[in-house]
Amino acid sequence: MQDELLAEINQWIEDSDKRKKSYRSWLALRAVVELHKPDEKGKYCIYDSPEWEPVEYPCPTILAIAEEL
What we know:
55% of the residues lie in helices and 0% in strands. It is mainly alpha-helical. The chain is elongated, with a radius of gyration of 13 Å.
């Protein structure tokens, strides 16, 4: 799911005018998606999962972004 989101966001970045606020917003969104990636087994979000309480991937953040795109 992360790869698909990044591809879609990257396309929006390419299509955006670098001088406009929307361009910076897409860059910020891409940074968030890059942080919320699955662990090596693809089971948990490495950003949201402290050692004692893992959060399944896709995490709520990725699900919310995917829903809006």
